[in-house]
Amino acid sequence: MDDQLDAVVIGAGIVGLAVARALALRGRAVLVLERHALPAQETSSRNSGVIHSGIYYPASSLKARLCVAGRARLYEFMEHRGVAHRRCGKLIVAQEGQQRALELLQRQALQNGVTDLVALSGAGVRDYEPALRCAAGLWCPSTGIVDVHELAQALIADLEAAGGTIAYRTVVQSARVGTGAARLLCLGGDEPVEIESALLVNAAGLAAVELLRRFAGYPAPLLRTAWFAKGNYFSLAGAKPFRHLVYPMPDEAGLGIHATLDLDGATRFGPNVEWVDRPEYAVDPRKADEFYGSIRSYWPDLADGALQPGYAGVRPKLVGPGAKAADFVIEGPEVHGCAGLVNLLGIESPGLTSCLAIGEYVASLAGAVAENGTG
Ligand SMILES: Cc1cc2nc3c(=O)[nH]c(=O)nc-3n(C[C@H](O)[C@H](O)[C@H](O)COP(=O)(O)OP(=O)(O)OC[C@H]3O[C@@H](n4cnc5c(N)ncnc54)[C@H](O)[C@@H]3O)c2cc1C
To answer: Does 47 contact ligand 1 (Cβ within 6 A)?
Structure first.
């Protein structure tokens, strides 16, 4: 690996893979560096697996634009490639006193280009899901669920068919960035390896912000603090109560403890929001109390003892507790001045839904970088 490479992507999560695929399809020779032995082992496999419509995000934010565009691209891709998924639709349910917030949510959705929502009365919601208690709701037909591992495999197949490669068990330890090609120091083999690349995409997920501290040449004033918001899930034992996804009204840090389905129809609830100092994934069974209270606000029939600890994921946040949610940050040389470097920061939800649109966005940014001669 002594010669200069064309493009390196750090991280084989869903977003890193989608970026690598998009670059490879545009003719770039791409190498993905991943510290685990398999793809999509971190946030990409510790989420709700939901294809979001694009309702919640401020108009013209990257989250809104990339989610709406990415959702359409993702359905098309999955249908074409036979990736397991289901367009099951979701209900957002509002309790007494939340109807105004629900109207604002529908207005937000329209601004974002989500035009297929249907406003429902409480009785209208119960036509879809008889067990729900609520005052009003929204039916969102374009929401769905996906098998993330099948999606990862389909992205890898395209990447490899276009000549790209993934080096697993390879940790990017540090880098030098600046005016010329990026120079990376990688661990994993018998000896550390140095790699040079004209384009470097930092898609390291939960580690992306901290990794920049080890990029010599990256401007110190742009360094950020990484915040981590863990989301726990509990699975539901026994009968399957819902055929659609069910979401309460969102709160400041997340979408509320919602009911999602997997492709077999099994139900799980989550994620809550628990701020942690560093990523960790143990689910404390005592958290079930918080879940029972929250779920019974819209599904009163939830039986005692029905919830079992499931799994957890961690959101890579750019702002801490109480702050307004940050947008995705996708920064190229026009922001930080380092040739050929693109950072993907704070790629929390709806990153899975947006992955193909993020890939195309980064590939066009990388094309512009190369055309300007700065990459
Ligand atoms: C609880 C929760 C629920 C969510 N639900 C949804 C949802 O329903 N729908 C949706 O659209 N989005 C959802 N998301 C968001 C979505 O999961 C993420 O946006 C997406 O998975 C991010 O993918 P990624 O590739 O950026 O990051 P990751 O999947 O974290 O991948 C980053 C990769 O980088 C690797 N890496 C890190 N550092 C290094 C290094 N130094 N050297 C080599 N490799 C390195 C890691 O090993 C990892 O594989 C959710 C997120 C959470 C936490």
So the answer is: yes
The boundaries of every CATH 3.50.50.60 domain in the chain are 4-46+149-225+325-371
The CATH code of the domain at 4-46+149-225+325-371 is 3.50.50.60
Instruction: Kindly report the number of other CB atoms within 10 A of residue 58's CB atom.
Output: 14
pTM given for the model: 0.96
Q: Does the beta carbon of 230 sit less than 6 angstroms from any atom of ligand 1?
A: no
Q: Ligand 1: which of 43, 75, 159, 197 to mutate, most ligand atoms within 8 Å of CB?
A: 43
pLDDT truncated to tens, each residue of the chain (375 aa)? 446 899 999 999 999 999 999 999 999 999 999 999 999 999 999 999 999 999 999 999 999 999 999 999 999 999 999 999 999 999 999 999 999 999 999 999 999 999 999 999 999 999 999 999 999 999 999 999 999 999 999 999 999 999 999 999 999 999 999 999 999 999 998 899 999 999 999 999 999 999 999 999 999 999 999 999 999 999 999 889 999 999 999 876 578 899 999 998 899 999 999 999 999 999 999 999 999 999 999 999 999 999 999 999 999 999 999 998 999 999 999 999 999 999 999 999 999 999 999 999 999 998 766 655 444
Q: How many whole angstroms from 228 Cα to the centroid of ligand 1?
A: 12
- Work out the burial of residue 27: count CB atoms within 10 Å of its CB; fewer than 13 is exposed, 13-18 middle, 19 or more buried: exposed
The answer to whether 51 touches 146, Cβ cutoff 8 Å, is: yes
Instruction: Tell me how far the alpha carbon of residue 227 lies from the centroid of ligand 1, in angstroms.
Output: 14
What CATH architecture does domain 88-142+227-317 belong to?
2-Layer Sandwich (3.30)
Q: CA torsion sign, 160 to 33 to 334 to 209?
A: positive
Q: What are the residues whose beta carbons fall under 8 Å from the beta carbon of 180, sequence distance 6 or more? A: 339
Instruction: Give the Cα separation of 219 and 13 in Å (integer).
Output: 26
Q: Which residue ranges does the chain devote to CATH 3.30.9.10?
A: 88-142+227-317
